[in-house]
Amino acid sequence: MSKPSFYITTPIYYPNDKLHIGHAYTTVASDTMARYKRLRGYDVYFLTGTDEHGQKIQSRAEQAGLEPKAFLDPIIEWIQALWKKLDISYDDFIRTTEERHEKVVADIFERLLAQDDIYLSEYEGWYCTPDESFWLERELKDGKCPECGREVQFVREASYFFRMGKYVDRLLQYYEDNPGFIEPVGRKTEMIKNFIEPGLQDLCVSRTSFDWGVHVKSDPKHVVYVWLDALTNYITAIGYGSDDPEAKAKFEKYWPADVHVVGKDIVRFHTIYWPIILMALDLPLPKKVFGHGFFLAKGGKMSKSKGNVIDPLQLIDRYGRDAFRYFLMREIPFGQDGVFTPEAMVDRLNYDLANDFGNLIHRTVAMLHRFYGGAIPVPAGLTDEEEALISLAAQTRELVERYMDEMQFSLALSEIWNLVRRGNKYIDECQPWKLHKEGQTERLQTVLYHMAEVIRLATIMVQPVMPDAPKVIRRQFGWTDEEFAWTALNIGAGVGGRRVAEGEPLFPRLDVEKEIEALTEMTTSTVPNQQAAKDTSGQQAKAAEKGQDKSGAKPQIGIDVFDQVELRVGQIKTAAKVEGADKLLQFQIDLGSETRQIVSGIAKYYAPEDLIGKKVIVVANLKPAKLRGVESQGMILCASEGDALTIATVPDSMPNGAIVK
Ligand code: MSP
């Protein structure tokens, strides 16, 4: 019987700059799903690629003094190298500048024109060049782009438009008939309320003000405007519109896509415009669009154009791709936003990988060698302990499958770790060292076998997330293909009697302070996107550096959350520069009952001697952190705007240590 097919896509990324951790997040999540489906016996086709046309690319190439293609090629190479480094198992990488794509886009445009789905008119309105999006007057926020907060230009030019209105009822019907089409479900409500109910505007599908794109055959001064061009990659890559029989067969096999994985920023294009384009082409619609949340940097949105990016390469180089991928998939529930913090990353790697999984493997291998000559025993009789473990394993498998099918990667991992932790507990409770000492050989055999079985199960299930460690563990334990198949995910399917190799710990324990310091350094640098940062307006770039979102606003919190912050009046006793760190000042601050050392990045704004004696507000219950090797036991509050910064001060009459609220 032929395998069922599974077609999964990532967005095609804009190669106007290097990619950051957010792009890696989408791609790793898609790869995790692709790997999982392969393990479950699907014939998977996994597509990624780059979105290479448009005004932004054209002007970036011009700035660099290069032809667009010459500008793009090294960036594409860089992106592909990043995916290689992350072991992204894509089957195809489409570049929208490839002939297989451009030719079909031009044909599609002509067909839609002939069908009267597309008509020529004049565009008049607001345009955000960095986002390549058009906005209505009412959609602007304070006269700026509602998506990125940057300046918009008023443009008027002849453009072709797609008649969207014609298909809206069918689209809404599709939503209703296919409740799983948009996930998480909340995004569907958003789409209907924000875009469909106010009246869906026709989509502008051509431009004449730049020419880096697919030229309209019948009217070549127009180039196909980016979204019609970009979205179509999902079908051109698998052979739509090609005359080649092999390509045609591929399209028949894989279309409609099982899931388009996208960030929440482009859900609108994938759940409104894309289905409508497909309806006009008489093609079936994708089964699902999953709009995941955003990776935020310290309370703010991270984006290429803002410059507050986290470079995935540095993290992979330091921790390895397994750890990096594990962190991405475990830390944030897929669908929600999450904030990257160095503390969370170090905790995950230390607790989950080193303490839980690493330890289980390490202890088991050591005990197999110490008590059983390095082999996995054949089990003897089972007790309640084993029965409980067996049933937990069965339940884990069921839940992991459910969550993976739902793309709830963090929940699936949490279940696997529940089993791993139970495995460690099982060892503590059964005390193999005692069984050995007491000569309870049969019981010892059973326990050692079950320890190895928990590892086998966890290792199989973790494969979609980690491409490397499971291979090493498998080699170490010598499991065969049958034992290592997803279908062998039950305790008892592992065969006893085989030798296990001794090995190095796979997940080393990290020095918390050292790593937090290193991560803080890495994740506050703006190196990969300096150019992009320059493109943003000065004020926004500043906010971006500080990790705020475009308005600087943060989500609302309750008084209970605010109450957790201890603010106190402190008096600066000493102030000095931190050696080797231009930005930092180091203070001794009198908090009434104690003196605290605090390090603050305000050297640019104040001479140390000007601050002595000042009464300031201190966040007194902030976890200590090391900045450039100097411990900081709190934080001083400052106000900042643009290039200016002022320490928040309190009148001298207020005693040191007084509570601020
Ligand atoms: N080229 C378009 C997509 C066309 S798809 C037919 C585009 N490209 S992009 O490079 O700007 O971003 C693509 C995707 O990157 C986002 O949809 C999202 O999946 C991912 N992310 C970009 N920044 C992100 C975060 N900070 N966090 C998580 N994902 C983010 O839009």
Would you summarize the structure shown here?
The chain is α/β, with parallel strands linked by helices and 661 residues long. It contains 23 helices and 25 strands. The strands form seven sheets. A six-stranded parallel sheet has the order 3-2-1-11-12-7, sandwiched between helices. Strands 16, 17, 18, 19, 22 and 25 form a six-stranded antiparallel sheet that branches.
Could you outline the blueprint of secondary structure elements for this entry?
Blueprint (H helix, E strand, L loop, with lengths): L4 E9 L7 H19 L3 E8 L4 H10 L3 H18 L6 E4 L3 H16 L3 E11 L4 E3 L17 E10 L5 H10 L4 E2 L2 H11 L6 E2 L1 E2 L15 E2 L1 H6 L1 H4 L8 H10 L4 E5 L3 H14 L8 E4 L2 E3 L2 E2 L10 H8 L1 H11 L6 E3 L1 H31 L11 H22 L3 H22 L1 H6 L3 H22 L6 H9 L34 H13 L5 H6 L2 H8 L13 H5 L3 E11 L7 E6 L4 E6 L7 H4 L3 E5 L5 E3 L2 E3 L2 E2 L1 E4 L2 E4 L11 E2 L1
Parallel strand pairs: 1-2, 1-11, 2-3, 7-12, 11-12, 13-15
Antiparallel strand pairs: 4-5, 4-6, 6-8, 9-10, 13-14, 16-17, 16-19, 16-25, 17-18, 19-22, 20-21, 23-24
Helix pairs in contact: 2-3, 6-10, 11-12, 12-13, 13-15, 13-17, 13-19, 14-15, 14-17, 15-17, 17-18
This protein binds 5'-O-[(L-methionyl)-sulphamoyl]adenosine.
5'-O-[(L-methionyl)-sulphamoyl]adenosine binds next to strand 1, helix 1, helix 7 and strand 11.
